[in-house]
Amino acid sequence: GIGEREQARMNPVQCPRVAVNQHSGMHEGQEVRDEAYRMVVELLVGFRRIVHRALLRVGGNEWFEKGCPLEVRRRMLERQEVERAVDRSSTESDDLFGHATFADLADIIEHFAPLSDVLRPLAPSPERLCADLRTLEELRVKVADARAISEADQSVLVVLRLRLREKLAGARRRTHPDEEDLGDVAAAVEHPPDSPEITQEIVPEITVE
Length: 209
Fold this sequence. Notes:
209 residues; mainly alpha
């Protein structure tokens, strides 16, 4: 399924992180890049799963054909082929979607209008959501290229990650009104992106019915 291999590969962000870690000098810059990497990973996995869930809800069994423009499908397939170094035969859509970048997600939201209503809790407007995703794409590329991360870049990542976590926690409060200790919710969103709290429970609930 879409969640099983994402954290292991996290293309195309993962490889540069290894390269960054090979440079033992400039320790502080490395720490900044590593932290930026972690935030990009969390945001990319989170947004992929939210958009995937929304596509399933709106598009049903034809979510991939209806919701993903041909150009986006082509880009995801190319990334999958690079990673697998070959196998054109394996194009299962769920697995392919695990190669979507922030830019792909923005293109999908712009392409498939019904998603806008479903994803309303994420941003004041679909335009704002897509703009945020494209900003994140610029930062993902920076991290992937092991380029310097500025304080402004860090601030953007921190703000967008905090906003996403707040939305997820708010969704959980709405769907679990009887929970007495909301501290548990805060703890839940601190778990790594692949934890059950994020992937199986909170993320699906952020989309509106």
